[in-house]
Amino acid sequence: MLNIALFGPPGAGKGTQSEKLLEKYSLTYISTGDMLRSEIAEGSPLGMEAKSIIASGGLVSDELIVKIIEKTIRTNTNSKGILFDGFPRTTVQAYILEGLLLKLNSSLDCMISLEVPEKELIDRLLLRAKTSGRSDDTLDVIKVRLKEYEDKTKPVADFYAKKNKYFPVNGVGEIDDIFENIVEIIQKNRKKEFTNIVILGKPGSGKGTQGKFLADKHNLVYISTGALLRVEVENNTEIGIIAKPYMDTGQIVPDEIPIKLIEQVIESNPHANGFIFKGFPRTMVQAYILDGLLQREDMRLSGMIEMKLPTLKAVKRLSERARSDRARPYDLNTDLIVNRLEQYREKTLPVNEYYKKQEKFYSIKAEGSEKKVFDLLSEKIEEILRSR
Ligand code: AP5
Ligand code: MG
Question: H helices of the chain, where?
């Protein structure tokens, strides 16, 4: 998501620049002033409550503002981001904004402040008064609005300056030139969107077959903790020596080991667009660890895809692999296969629940041709990308 707030006194050009920004970035528009005016026009209870306050140039209550904003956010769940115009207007509203965006798993990218001298503001608004029909475009009310801005709204600038998200722009001059400066700031400061996907499924569900190709197709870096571990074992490294007995018996290796391996991959791919994690996290503890690992890099998980396969089919595939040249030590006897399936049920299934609660859980049927399963997974990744 790209979330921007346009800041500045009445008449600074917030509404004017908003139109251009909406066209460029296709964002959801939240202009609390416009929303209040349309509530008034409809004669709704909300509008009635706000009418006299707006006409006098004061600020309406924070409760009322939250109500109208939530209404818009709720009806735009697939939004690419939000452009806020005229909100937050008080420090309390800045906290409210943080909370609202946190609920969407997001945050504000930048606050852009349009700076215009008072005399010009008054001239602009008096000129606009001729056509705007706004009850608050009269000299007396404009003065009250400017005073409200000085007293209550300006402190919001400090709130975002402390977070390094506050960017003043000269609001005097050609509308297109001002717009260009705004766009430059946005491009420089927008958060990079990472795509981080977890692929889970029973042993034998085909995670390894699909993971690498999926990562290539979606321009992501593939992290298979299993494959990384096998390399360590083959090379007889320190990690490999510790991990080998666990792997040979189909057990989950101690958490420090996959963490170290994942950290190495993330660190050696500083320009990645994101990662596909295959077979990790395998336990609830590892799910928390992954959250922590991603958080440290200012990333989060985008979604988890379960590859569903009936147990009998999984057993069949694993015993077939045991007879092929791709056989793993832990494919070789039925006890080990059963053990791994049991571990999956006991330790990994709860991870699915964890992501379900966060609405990050997706699932596909891992049966049919490899191509068919690949297409299903690919579609899910597209769906995850759209839902962010
Ligand atoms: P709101 O509607 O947000 O009004 P405002 O902040 O006073 O700002 P304006 O809409 O008047 O100005 P603007 O910056 O959008 O400038 P514009 O682009 O139109 O709020 C109204 C009221 O609602 C508040 O007073 C309050 O009561 C209530 N309210 C709203 N949100 C609230 C909240 N969060 N909490 C509590 N209460 C809330 O430009 C102005 C004019 O200048 C236009 O005619 C334009 O054509 C012209 N212009 C623009 N750019 C240029 C330029 N570069 N050069 C020359 N002219 C220009
Ligand atoms: Mg406006």
Answer: 14-25, 32-42, 45-56, 62-74, 91-103, 118-132, 139-148, 155-161, 175-189, 207-217, 225-234, 238-248, 256-267, 284-296, 311-322, 334-343, 349-357, 370-386
79 Cβ contact partners less than 8 Å away, ≥ 6 residues apart: 1, 27, 28, 73
Distance from Cα 367 to the centre of ligand 2, integer Å? 55
The per-residue pLDDT of the chain, averaged, comes to 93
Per-residue model confidence (pLDDT) at position 78: 66
Residue 240's contacts (CB-CB under 8 Å, 6 or more residues apart) are 229, 231, 232, 233, 234
Residues with CB under 6 A from ligand 1: 8, 10-16, 32-33, 36, 53-54, 57-60, 65, 86-87, 89, 93, 124, 128, 136, 145, 173, 175, 178
Question: Tens digits of per-residue pLDDT, 234-254?
Answer: 999 999 999 999 988 878 899
* Calpha distance 222→225 (Å, rounded): 10
